[in-house]
Amino acid sequence: MPDASTPSTPSPTELSEDELRALDAHWRASNYLAVGQIYLMANPLLTEPLRPEHIKPRLLGHWGTSPGLNLVHTHLNRVVKARDLDAICVWGPGHGGPAVLANSWIEGSYTETYPDVTRDEPGMARLFRQFSFPGGVPSHVAPETPGSIHEGGELGYSLSHAYGAALDNPGLLVACVIGDGEAETGPLAASWHGNKFLDPVHDGAVLPILHLNGYKIANPTVLARLPQDELDELLRGYGHEPIHVTGDDPMAVHREMAAALDTALDRIAAFQAAARGWDSDAGGAARPRWPVIVLRTPKGWTGPREVDGLPVEGTWRAHQVPLAEVRDNPDHLRQLEEWLRSYRPAELFDDSGRPRAQVLECVPAGERRLGANPHANGGLLLRDLPLPPLDRFAVPVDTPGGALHEPTRVLGEMLEQVMADTEGRRDFRIVGPDETASNRLQAVYEASGKAWQAEVLKVDENLDRHGRVMEILSEHTCQGWLEGYLLTGRHGLFSCYEAFVHIVDSMVNQHIKWLRTTRRLPWRRPVASLNYLLTSHVWRQDHNGFSHQDPGFIDHVLNKAPEVVRVYLPPDTNTLLSVADHVLSSRDYVNVVVAGKQPSFDWLTMDAARAHCARGAGLWEWAGTEDVRRGPDVVLACAGDVPTLEILAAAQLLRHHLPQLGVRVVNVVDLARLLPKDEHPHGMSDAEYDALFTPDKPVIFAYHGYPWLIHRLAYRREGHVNLHVRGYKEIGTTTTPFDMVLRNDLDRYRLVMDVIDRVPGLGVTAAAVRQRMDEVRLRHHEWIREHGTDLPEVADWSWQG
Amino acid sequence: MPDASTPSTPSPTELSEDELRALDAHWRASNYLAVGQIYLMANPLLTEPLRPEHIKPRLLGHWGTSPGLNLVHTHLNRVVKARDLDAICVWGPGHGGPAVLANSWIEGSYTETYPDVTRDEPGMARLFRQFSFPGGVPSHVAPETPGSIHEGGELGYSLSHAYGAALDNPGLLVACVIGDGEAETGPLAASWHGNKFLDPVHDGAVLPILHLNGYKIANPTVLARLPQDELDELLRGYGHEPIHVTGDDPMAVHREMAAALDTALDRIAAFQAAARGWDSDAGGAARPRWPVIVLRTPKGWTGPREVDGLPVEGTWRAHQVPLAEVRDNPDHLRQLEEWLRSYRPAELFDDSGRPRAQVLECVPAGERRLGANPHANGGLLLRDLPLPPLDRFAVPVDTPGGALHEPTRVLGEMLEQVMADTEGRRDFRIVGPDETASNRLQAVYEASGKAWQAEVLKVDENLDRHGRVMEILSEHTCQGWLEGYLLTGRHGLFSCYEAFVHIVDSMVNQHIKWLRTTRRLPWRRPVASLNYLLTSHVWRQDHNGFSHQDPGFIDHVLNKAPEVVRVYLPPDTNTLLSVADHVLSSRDYVNVVVAGKQPSFDWLTMDAARAHCARGAGLWEWAGTEDVRRGPDVVLACAGDVPTLEILAAAQLLRHHLPQLGVRVVNVVDLARLLPKDEHPHGMSDAEYDALFTPDKPVIFAYHGYPWLIHRLAYRREGHVNLHVRGYKEIGTTTTPFDMVLRNDLDRYRLVMDVIDRVPGLGVTAAAVRQRMDEVRLRHHEWIREHGTDLPEVADWSWQG
Ligand SMILES: Cc1ncc(C[n+]2csc(CCOP(=O)(O)OP(=O)(O)O)c2C)c(N)n1
Ligand SMILES: Cc1ncc(C[n+]2csc(CCOP(=O)(O)OP(=O)(O)O)c2C)c(N)n1
Ligand SMILES: [Mg+2]
Ligand SMILES: [Mg+2]
């Protein structure tokens, strides 16, 4: 491999005048169509003079970014066609929907996807009218947009999506337009370092195109106002070699842009050839300095220069709709007509509204078109994940609570097998913020190391140029990588501390919205679910305390589209295996799995675990004392590993102290089971719910997270008035495990007291038991302050059956 | 001003041997105390050989980062004392609690804050024992830690906190240690650009110290493995001039670190002198290239080199507790004793455990000590914000719904006055992700421009080197700046699109936790509340659609400590003014205010608004039709501007179509009023609730956000079974405003149907009315698809009284 930082690149070919004119025609056509979408609901080809009634009553959309996106699209078309590239593009400023829609319509992928929007005048009229119009299409590069894996509504995620798409797609080029405003966001700023994890052998290439149009909404951008040498230092510091394209003269910019793309692609090809020829396992290959294109063109380029005496083109005023009163202000109407005619539509479209040959000259064919590349509809490429038989990893359970295992450690062994079985296919990855080992999944390293392109020292472990475990201390980047990977048709898992997954609250929102929408689009094929393993959870933050305690991600996702969201709380090792098996084979969901990493009791055999997880919620008969003829006096319900332990310990105390009491123990794995049937696909019917929880007996529910969530799920049930929930009440610090549950009133002694307080008639007769429970709690308080550990009767507790 | 990028700096003085030895003694002492905290619960001075019973039973804490933090603290002490600096330090790797606690104890600020932890042997024993121990102190640089404004539990926010602290504190130096792991996070990566907003005239200085100890938890870090020239390019690209300190020989590193700090501080002083001497309003002054110190020392430096045959010092294995089995493994015990004795404690502490004179030599006095600087306990410095009389901004309301205003625009005028009235004091800032004008607060620019240190072009507006409005397209940075600003005793407001405030879910978690804890610490003085103005809300995303629709931040914060969290939904302009006045004068809260920016009806006069907001929830008698003797047949409740409009329109329809029906209209401004009294300080008693909502009549509640939140707040109320809530059901796209409410069943027609369905007896008699409502909804559907605007009867609706 030659010195990776200065590859020898052939000097790019000069464009002929014809090519140049054809590119410009394509660009003008896409600009025309972008403006048309924002403004017109009739007269699409301007066959008659523009009149107010041709104009939409509400002008909604973003013009400013569109000419830049169109320029990039035009030039990507050229190189894709010339080089027969397999390429997709992630459009960071996704508010430039009109641009991407325009291009899809021109290349024909739009009409193939939506046959009613034909590539002729009626279709153009429809394209214009539907944009940002009731019953029409969204203003952004949404799931509805062919060729997109990225909405760009919430800015910041384009580059990490692009890296995710490129991973394990060695033949793919992922271009990525980054807005200079978007570049200010944290997620984007972090994601530049994706190149430290990109394997030039097994991964494709990412080509960032930083679009310095100078402005965000109403302000200049930080990067656009850096002196150029400072910007270059920054980009080099990010590990890139900048290639600049600057200007406002279209022909000059076309020439520069074509040359820049040729240079960039030649370099990428050279880097890849070098890396792939080389035995890179021998180590020491320098990380390439991948190219980045810096495109500096005016915001709202080719739009109105001035409106009402104020400058617009090249300023922040071009961001949305430059001419705002077209229907009422004849001057604006005239300006709009001039603007549209400046693109010379008659040269671009024939009389029936079809794009002319010159416009189509740069457009590639078939699946090479950016709007038709199957990678952007990843379900087309998705294969089932090979999942090993669970029994190979199941822990033996002779008697409930007879042994202890660390659930995530055992899961790690199963994931190791999945990693091994996808060695050749390379379609499974695990991401995490440097917590894979901390979360005890380290067995996976036996099958795949951690992706790492930098220097490796002797003390390092499991680093691997070709690894498929990805660890960067950025939850945003982990999430973005995984989303990009899944949306292009692969599989994965994100393991994260429970509290800090809130960092990606907003990202998962967008992904859920994406999935909810794609489920309604028949042409979008299902993709693998986004799977979270949340561990190092609220109850076991022994090292870290209060700042690391937050079980609210569950609440957050359960606010979102029920057809997409699933939440699982496996109480032990075998149930975790069963849940993992299920979520890894599911499609189009966001699955949240909360599980423990600390040694905890095994309750269910593998078969029982499978059945229990399939039910989602069920009786644990062996743990209760109910008289089958009478039914229970009280239901002890639990969800989560620690609450399950406390409920079982409470059940045991009750069995001992109040043997005549009929206790039923119910465990809930699948939280959505608690919802009414018509509110969530997993919801129980009222009959099922009443049978399990009773309509009229006290239910003491020990829950892993914020207790009111259970009320929010179950408030419609008849038995809701008898439901008493214990959970995390936002009380925490660095303390012992049992002190955490005790401080939050989730401990076994408190649960027994709850039973006594709530079962009619028990208050008086069980007063002595209640007092004894209270005494243990007081004893605990003194003991831990003296010894720093939990009471022996708690620490050494075991299930006695 | 000399060329800002190459200031002439005096060459730093060489340390004398005595100084050097004293610095090293201080460093050794703090290292000794850090190790002691992690391991020991007795025998603090090692007066006897170490035995297992001296060791804590649970070893919890982070050693790896501690020697680095200690080194920085030692050297900051020296320069603070030598230069009489007013300085604080933000410790990014806040998991290094033992280090910061050790230093506070040495300098005496700890004992002043916690008199029981004396600066002698018994105090040292207590310091050790309490660390990460039940009933003791957290393992992190928590609110309990003197001198801290930053916990560092969730990594990523140190540098934005540091900038926030430096703003408007021209005399302050804010040092900021950034972990090389932390530097990978998005929020940290974005926050480097804070220097583009730092005014060298009115703001203090931020000195970032990038701590390249090479590792995060189990992996090397990206920045530590960059070739040095690439790292330098990155830091220069961030606008900094790097100063390197590298080594593992303590004496050499002390020399280098002292010189580096002197160089950095000299440069800072020169930049500030130049800027402050210069008429910088004349423009054109170059932005200084502020120094950054790159400290490259081993992780776990001075700790065990090897444990059980594996390398530890200088590796990831040093992250937490290097020797894990000290109680049970005699080898580990011996190693620990050697390690502790390697610091030569007898040289550092006298027989009674007091630090010797040499150790204390570098320590500054009084409020100059990092643990005693009042800026780190900002409430000490806080002044009341001057708030103008609201009547000056109030909109006149002759009759409810008689006129329209844009609430946030009017609020902007009030904020303009606050900006103007703090012109000299400079203790109020507004932050936002380039949405101040989009959110219609632009009047504030009349009183203060937008902070901006880069080039200003002719087309730019309101940019100002000395501005106090801060706009960067990073919600994380906005939040971090504001937190740092508030915690150092100033005031502010964060205005944000409602959906995208989820980006800072995790940050606000940490801030709420911080406030919850400080409220229990008598020595921490109250600080100004963190105020959110959320606008461009879910119901009015005309330009953007589904990706911009999410009202869940309210749910998120209402999961947190009730003593800290407040949520307000003012329904019109005057109520928004009243709420703003209240939140801006409050302390120690996180206030979430959701308000509209679109023209909306004025319902209440200023006096009525004040009274209504003080009540938090109340009857709008003028809107109802209830017979005072009979009470209402149905309650129409609402919270939020759009739901209020729909409820009033429904009330008007009912008045017209079903005049005999007794309708009560209730508006809720302060959402926590719905909670039981014992669950939130603002909660209503059951008597109040029943009086307002009735215990037995149907309540149709139109709510701004996710409907189940209202159930979660009110499920304990007697009338809960009759409560029927409408709200946002995660259905949205780019469409008309009324189509949004209709799609989510929150529209006036649906509400009337809800009333008919729920008031006993109405179903049959009002069947015709119900059908008419349904017909309008159908008509709407067709109308918007044809016209693109709402039905005239909706668009032109007004309240008829
Ligand atoms: C995270 C986030 N914050 C705020 C916004 C609101 N917003 C929409 S567009 C925009 C400016 C985008 O600027 P840039 O990335 O430069 O795109 P362009 O100039 O090409 O339109 C902003 C701030 C957003 N979409 N996402
Ligand atoms: C946002 C976030 N993600 C994950 C963690 C878990 N975590 C705790 S410490 C740590 C490594 C920190 O590395 P660095 O910043 O280099 O600190 P140091 O090496 O000085 O300990 C990680 C990943 C965290 N605290 N915050
Ligand atoms: Mg821009
Ligand atoms: Mg580190």
UniProtKB/TrEMBL annotation, chains A, B:
Its cofactor is thiamine diphosphate. InterPro entries: Phosphoketolase, THDP-binding, Transketo_C/PFOR_II, Xul5P/Fru6P_PKetolase, Xul5P/Fru6P_PKetolase_C, Xul5P/Fru6P_PKetolase_CS, Xul5P/Fru6P_PKetolase_N, Xul5P/Fru6P_PKetolase_ThDP_BS. Keywords: Lyase, Thiamine pyrophosphate. CDD domains: TPP_PK. Residues 597-799 form the Xylulose 5-phosphate/Fructose 6-phosphate phosphoketolase C-terminal domain. PROSITE patterns: PHOSPHOKETOLASE_1, PHOSPHOKETOLASE_2. Belongs to the XFP family. This is Probable phosphoketolase. Pfam families: XFP, XFP_C, XFP_N. Its EC number is 4.1.2.-. NCBIfam families: PRK05261.1-2, PRK05261.1-4, PRK05261.1-6. Residues 15-380 form the Xylulose 5-phosphate/Fructose 6-phosphate phosphoketolase N-terminal domain. PANTHER family: PHOSPHOKETOLASE-RELATED. SUPFAM superfamilies: Thiamin diphosphate-binding fold (THDP-binding) (SSF52518), TK C-terminal domain-like (SSF52922). It is an enzyme of class 4 (lyase).
